[in-house]
Design a protein that fits this description.
0% of the residues lie in helices and 54% in strands. It is built from no helices and 59 strands.
């Protein structure tokens, strides 16, 4: 056969189509990169180059995709681990969609200490309570990928990263239970990929838990304290410069409802006869935030005797009762509420032949009860006690025949105590309970005035100025448990005006010098078995007690 005469036969197989020619110009294969480099790509095609994509470790993005020359991308390697290996290649497409690939370039990235992100600075706490903390710091880096927030609950011995937030963040709120420790330390560091900066300054936060006592005195534990003092479990201290006259009521009020604002926190409110607090004008009501005193609007024109708080969806309300007729310059007639911004009346208030007075407020099941000395509430005849489930007031049975000085809750019923000896026309001897329809006697009552009612440890505690309660001998205080009355180891040698449950003990305040066989000046603690003094007590009368906890923080290295 003569092979030279054989013709090439036509084929039906498709011929290969070549895409663009692509080449990595820089960096060179096996190069070492310190901090950053520029990846340069050359791509050519007779059909024109439509798009070039640069891949690093098999990934690309819009910043590494080009439709016109130059095909160049600056690669910041400071976010990568030191001495790490990486692969670079490029892909190009012509105008017909054909593809061409470059060869793979292998590189090693190197990191020097000066290339780590600068540490953030100026770390501080914006606000904090037991439900969370808001931190703020200064960002000193221009290439961080985020920040690590670190927490220590053992005074700095061990830190845990509790959150990592994104680049350019300068403030963050941490939610959580901060009641597990009394001291927390926070610090922040910048992160650039796997590389991290040094730490910011620290912030040490301490939860200050104190018992506040208000009344009429000039010293507590031998320390000058004008009508208000605080007890930290060991010593007494003043509350700023105090007030210029008596304090009758204390309450912690959070103007933002914790229903909608779980990280908001409250302030201590004091009410009484005073016209200044901490040296500033404050008419019968003032606030303390753990550091300074502030007025509450323009206050009241007469004495404040009691507070009660009512949570609502957006703003909680603080109710105040007393002998005042105006609050914030508005007519209010013995009861008013504060919404965090202004005072307002609640209905048309109370009135009486004598100046009306509200001595006690209590909330049960969304209903506000007011006890005091008044015969009209919202224009409706009442007997020294009224209730409100809205803006208006209604009576509570026929009421009492003399002032109601104390309200309490026991077994889901409202109790009233005071100077009265009858309720709904029935003899009750200074103590009665409301069953929703009628007033009923509580045992045989007391043989003297009741000033305070408080449920502690499931038992009802009744205090005042009497020598018997429920038919048993009891000096100014007694306890009701499962229908059985008991006295408290001799009680006190003078009247008790307030009962408060605090830190595993029951504290009572009044005008006495001993509790049981213990010397105790107007304030004492009952542990369920015995009485003990609270430091040196005060040199006058205690009429109000409250627990106010707040967070105090300092900058640390």
């Amino acid at each position: 056969m003569n092979l030279s005469c054989v013709q090439d036969l036509p084929t039906n197989q498709p011929q290969p189509v070549l895409g663009p020619t692509v080449k990595i110009l820089t960096p060179a294969d096996n190069a070492s990169i310190l901090d950053s480099t520029v990846i340069n790509v050359d791509a050519t095609s007779e059909k024109g180059v439509a798009r070039v994509e640069i891949y690093v470790d098999y990934r690309t993005d819009s910043n590494r995709t080009f439709t016109t020359k130059p095909y160049r991308w600056k690669w910041d390697t400071r976010v990568l681990a030191d001495s790490s290996l990486h692969k670079i290649y490029a892909v190009a497409y012509d105008n017909n969609g054909n593809r061409g690939n470059s060869s793979v370039v292998n590189v090693t990235t190197l990191i020097q200490a000066s290339s780590l992100p600068p540490a953030p600075s100026g770390l501080d706490i914006v606000s904090m309570n037991s439900g969370g903390v808001t931190l703020r710091w200064q960002d000193n880096s221009d290439f961080e990928t985020g920040f690590d927030i670190m927490l220590s609950a053992d005074d700095g011995r061990n830190y845990t990263t509790v959150a990592t937030v994104g680049a350019d963040t300068i403030e963050n709120t941490l939610s959580g239970n901060f009641d597990q420790s009394d001291i927390y330390l926070f610090r922040v560091r910048a992160r650039a990929g796997v590389n991290v900066s040094g730490f910011s300054n620290g912030v040490k936060a301490q939860n200050i838990k104190e018992l506040y006592a208000g009344g009429s005195f000039t010293s507590a534990g031998g320390i000058p304290a004008n009508n208000l003092a605080r007890w930290n479990g060991k010593v007494w201290s003043a509350v700023g410069s105090g007030t210029n006259s008596s304090v009758y009521a204390l309450a912690v009020y959070n103007e933002k409802s914790t229903i909608s604002f779980p990280l908001s926190y409250g302030k201590l409110y004091a009410g009484g006869l005073f016209t200044s607090a901490g040296g500033i004008p404050a008419n019968r009501v003032a606030t303390w935030d753990g550091r300074v005193w502030n007025s509450v609007g323009t206050g009241m024109n007469r004495t404040v005797y009691t507070f009660a708080t009512v949570p609502v969806i957006e703003k909680s309300l603080l109710f105040a009762g007393g002998t005042f007729t105006t609050a914030g310059g508005v007519q209010t007639n013995s009861v008013a509420f504060w919404n965090g911004e202004m005072w307002s009346p609640w209905g048309s208030g109370m009135s009486d032949v004598e100046p009306a007075a509200v001595y006690s407020l209590k909330v049960l099941g969304g209903v506000l009860y007011a006890g005091g000395r008044f015969s009209l509430a919202g224009g409706i005849p009442v007997g020294n006690i009224a209730r409100s489930s809205g803006v208006g007031w209604t009576n509570v049975g026929e009421g009492m025949n003399a002032p109601v000085l104390a309200l309490g809750v026991y077994s889901n019923r409202v109790l009233a105590g005071g100077e009265f000896d009858s309720a709904d026309g029935q003899q009750v001897n200074h103590l009665a309970q409301w069953d929703g329809t009628n007033w009923l006697q509580v045992g045989s009552g007391t043989n003297g005035t009741v000033y305070a009612l408080q449920t502690v440890g499931g038992a009802l505690h009744v205090a005042g100025q009497f020598t018997t309660v429920g038919g048993i001998s009891a000096s100014n205080i007694g306890r009701l448990t499962d229908s059985v009355w008991t006295n408290l180891a001799g009680g006190t040698n003078g009247p008790v005006f307030v009962i408060f449950d605090y830190m595993g003990g029951m504290y009572v305040g009044g005008d006495f010098t001993s509790a049981g066989s213990t010397s105790a000046n107007s304030i004492a603690r009952w542990d369920g078995v015995t009485w003990s003094a609270v430091g040196g007590g005060v040199n006058g009368v205690v009429r109000a007690l409250a627990n106010y906890s707040y967070w105090k923080w300092v900058i640390v290295p």
